[in-house]
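Possible regression after last week's pipeline update?

I re-ran a chain I had predicted before the update to compare outputs. Posting the input and the new output here so someone can diff against the archived version. Not blocking, just want to make sure nothing changed silently.
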Amino acid sequence: MLNNLKKNYFLLISTFLILYFFFNLMSGERGLISYFEKKKIFVDLKNKESELIKKIELLSIQNSLLSDNLDLDYIETLIRERFMFGKKNEKIYIIKNHED
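New output (post-update):
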């Protein structure tokens, strides 16, 4: 048996090395599975970044409307939305969505 093991020593070592590299290729910190997980996280972060950029642009536009040159129509819209304020003899209807 020992004689047989010596003859197949190269085959045995190479098999273990191939298995070792295969498992490290698939799993591990830099493996194929980890690559796909990181790629998915990257795409999600890119989507969040684009959403945040859109929000920043919207807030920038709203901020510019409230700067030195006041836009009275925009301020009236804000007051109506936040304080449910209306003019005399004006009826305000509030529609609530009930999601069941």
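Follow-up from reviewer: compared with the archived run. The chain has a mean pLDDT of 81. Marking as no regression found.
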